[in-house]
Specification:
The protein is α/β, with parallel strands linked by helices and 774 residues long. Helices cover 35% and strands 16% of the residues. It contains 31 helices and 33 strands. The strands form ten sheets. It has a six-stranded mixed beta sheet, with helices on both faces. It is globular and about 80 Å long. The N terminus is likely disordered.
């Protein structure tokens, strides 16, 4: 058995998140980076005015105060800023085949990619290639395609607005709309749901609204590990008397008690701030039913008020003026039984009625959510149900209230804003074509799901990745590895080695780029890039340390080099765009009216707000008003009739979610510990309810195989996982990704979003013959 898995230990969960342990972890990361003094200077520039934007999450900040970073942000910065490098010498010692056997942690720990590399199949190694020859090789392959749609242009959320804009401009001038993007695997459901219901696929709140709210409903997210800076906003709100109501499948300590490392008293003593006023643990996939129960309770409350002559609990004037389809929605709620609501949510009628009372007594309510909501089959419907709740209270556009999808990677929202969209709005295509003076592709292209299917079928032939690690981010890992192996050319623009580089296809290139912390020196001088946070704030980011290698290019320069080699400069002078990023921002401003006066508005501390049409009560959907969605609850979270199981298997069937540890960000693993869940020394852990463990004759520490079920002939399993009895609803289990991504069927996607159903996987636990590990 793998030595790493034998070292997994279970300890007691901490009584609070943050505090002195967060500070210790931050300092440890800085020291281990081998550049402690450099990284301390970098941290003081992180998320500051005239500094750089943290390469971690997309949470907003005020750009003021000495400390604007969190523990995980410090890890991200230290992880990227290291003196260790990976180049020709490294690959001379390691074949690609041997590297596939290494862990994801080991691969990225080897250091920064330091020079452009080309895969040599005969030697099974990457070897140096000049930038000129690399661009020429890409041009040869792209210009040799039979069909322009055989190209897939993938984007990670770490790319800047400038890089994302010229990336999509290059693709559209080439002739394709195939822009699979990391957002397709996380918040795609949010965009689809909100666009349909309120006319804009973004949140309607700003950071300031969190300090004004009377109540904040947190659904399906764990900010302690995934976006820790959010905890400061929640802490401030809680201390102001705001009631925070949490719905999350696991009891996460950061949503219970948080000690701000910036507060000396909470840092150095046991004191902490209680975050959640009430904390509920619904069953996986039961959040839509929970919200439906809140609304059903509110309807009963409103009926009672009407009978007694009291004011309605609902915002009647707002509803009359700004919404449609209310009657159909009320009929759907009325037809939904409490039995179905409680069975599906796992919460009682009394609990949901208590939440309804809190909502009704709160003038300003924010609903926020993350991937615990978006990665289900019925995610779009769930988000629209939350939108219904907010519409009933007139909370859209009210200060201190609204909808807040909490985005992941630092510029994942900005990428979509500036054109990374496989289904681009027609008005965007028309304006872009007018600005550049040439036709651009505007048809519907591939998202991640359809791109992977096309690569598996060998219908697409070239894959270019602007950052990210799709091999480990996408579901159904073995099939994703095969999809990459099917390519004629696999191009990876990256800062560090990862598993996506190891499935090479016919030919492969690794093109090393600058990190967010590094100085980006171009022909016109040092450049800054821009990003958009989860609150639609756009601000500048400029690195402050020397690049780890002189052979690195910026993402913008790499894309411009590819575009010039493939398309020439007859339509666009790509070298001029790379020489001065202001030229790119001029194109963005001319194409997207919300970016008018781009340069001047960036001079303001904190940047500028793009605005939100729904917050301004302009409803840009087909209805022309905010639309109540009248959808029934799903019949069941997992469609059992699609699964070929015997009676015993059905009794043992569990629903699994994948999640992050506290020692990782997205697919990047910083270490083997999960401090907030009491896990150390490894990651092959499955969290199991005590009653489920008893039924299946499992004890804490037993070793199991996890097998997922899907109606095809593919066996999906992972082995040597250690059982940990945990506070999780009966019938549900949880485990870390990317280790459990092999269990998620590629074809198991959300309705209307194609997002992988990573939070609702049908699994069986099979006790292994080997004895449990103590």
């Amino acid at each position: 058995m793998d030595k790493q898995r034998q070292q997994v230990k279970f300890t007691t969960k901490p009584a609070k998140a943050g505090g002195i342990n967060s500070l210790k972890s931050t300092l440890k990361s800085i020291v281990q980076s081998q550049q402690p003094s450099t990284n301390i200077k970098s941290l003081l520039k992180a998320n500051q005015d005239k500094g750089f934007d943290c390469p971690g999450c997309a949470w907003g900040d005020e750009k003021q105060g000495l400390v604007q970073f969190c523990e995980n942000g410090a890890k991200a910065i230290a992880w990227e800023s290291t003196t260790k490098t990976v180049g020709a010498d490294f690959f001379a010692e390691h074949s690609v085949s041997s590297l596939r056997k290494q862990s994801d942690y080991w691969l990225e720990y080897q250091g920064r990619l330091a020079e452009p590399l080309r895969y040599n199949e005969a030697a099974d190694q990457y070897q140096p290639i000049s930038w000129k020859d690399a661009f020429a090789l890409i041009a040869k392959h792209l210009n040799g395609l039979e069909n322009v749609n055989q190209l897939e242009l993938y984007t990670s959320g770490r790319a800047s607005n400038e890089a994302a804009f010229i990336y999509q401009l290059f693709g559209r001038l080439y002739g394709t709309s195939n822009f699979p993007d990391c957002s397709n695997m996380c918040h795609e459901a949010s965009g689809v749901a909100l666009k349909e219901s309120i006319g804009v696929g973004k949140g309607t709140v700003t950071l300031k609204d969190f300090s004004l709210a009377d109540a904040i409903f947190v659904f399906g997210q764990n900010p302690g590990s995934n976006h820790p800076r959010m905890l400061n906003a929640l802490r401030k709100a809680a201390r102001n008397g705001c009631k925070i109501i949490t719905f999350n499948n696991l009891k996460e300590v950061a949503l219970e008690r948080f000690a701000s490392p910036q507060d000396p008293l909470e840092l150095l003593t046991p004191k902490a701030t209680n975050i959640s006023h009430a904390y509920y643990t619904p069953k996986l996939g039961g959040d839509m039913a929970a919200v439906r129960g809140i609304v059903k309770a509110l309807l009963a409350m409103d009926e009672h008020r009407q009978q007694t002559g009291s004011d309605s609990v609902f915002a009647e004037q707002f509803i009359r003026q700004h919404t449609s389809n209310l009657d159909e929605y009320i009929q759907q709620v009325t037809a939904t039984s409490w039995q179905q609501i409680c069975d599906q949510s796992g919460l009682s009628q009394a609990e949901l009625e208590q939440v309804a009372k809190i909502w009704a007594s709160s003038d300003k309510v924010i609903c926020c959510w993350a991937m615990g909501i978006t990665q289900h089959k019925h995610s779009v419907a769930t988000i629209q149900e939350m939108t219904n709740l907010q519409l009933l209270g007139g909370h859209i556009g009210k200060p201190g209230a609204g909808l807040c999808p909490v985005r992941g990677h630092s510029n994942v929202q900005g990428n979509r804003t500036v054109g990374i969209n496989e289904k681009p709005p027609q008005v965007f295509i028309e304006r872009l074509a007018s600005v550049v003076g040439a036709p651009v592709a505007g048809d519907h292209g591939h998202n991640v799901y359809h791109a992977l299917k096309a690569l598996l079928a060998k219908q697409s032939k070239i894959f270019i990745s602007l950052g990210g690690n799709i091999a480990q981010a996408a579901p159904d890992s073995k099939r994703v590895y095969q999809a990459l192996s099917n390519t004629e050319l696999n191009v990876q623009i990256a800062t560090k080695l990862n598993r996506s580089h190891l499935y090479t296809g016919g030919e492969a290139l690794i093109l090393p780029c600058l990190g967010r912390t590094e100085i980006d020196q171009q022909k016109s001088g040092a450049q800054y890039i821009t990003v958009e946070d989860t609150f639609s704030m756009v601000h500048a980011s400029q690195g402050n340390v020397a690049p780890v290698s002189t052979a690195l290019k910026s993402e913008v320069a790499i894309i411009a080099g590819i575009a010039n080699a493939v398309l020439g400069n007859d339509i666009i002078d790509w070298s001029e765009l790379a020489a001065d990023y202001k030229n790119i921002r001029q194109l963005i401003s001319a194409t997207l009216p919300e970016f008018n006066d781009y340069e001047q508005r960036l001079d303001h501390i904190g940047g500028f707000y793009l605005g939100n049409s729904a917050a301004e009560h302009r409803w840009l959907n087909q209805a022309g008003k905010a639309l109540f969605s009248a959808l029934p609850l799903p019949n069941e979270i997992i469609a059992l009739d699609h699964l070929a199981m015997n009676k015993q298997q059905k009794q043992r069937l569990l629903t699994m979610q994948t999640l992050r540890s506290h020692d990782q960000y997205n697919t990047t693993i910083y270490g083997m510990n999960d401090r907030y869940r009491g896990i150390s020394g490894g990651r092959n852990v499955v969290f199991v309810n005590a009653k489920d463990a008893k039924v299946q004759n499992l004890c804490d520490g037993d070793i199991v195989t996890i097998r997922s079920l899907w109606p095809d002939d593919i066996e999906r399993k992972v082995e040597n996982f250690k059982v940990h009895i945990y506070d999780i609803p009966q019938g549900n289990v949880a485990a870390y990704y990317p280790e459990t991504n092999p269990l998620i069927p590629l074809d198991s996607v959300g309705d209307r979003s194609d997002t992988p159903t990573s939070k609702s996987i049908a699994v069986l636990l099979e006790k292994q013959v080997s004895q449990r590990i103590i």
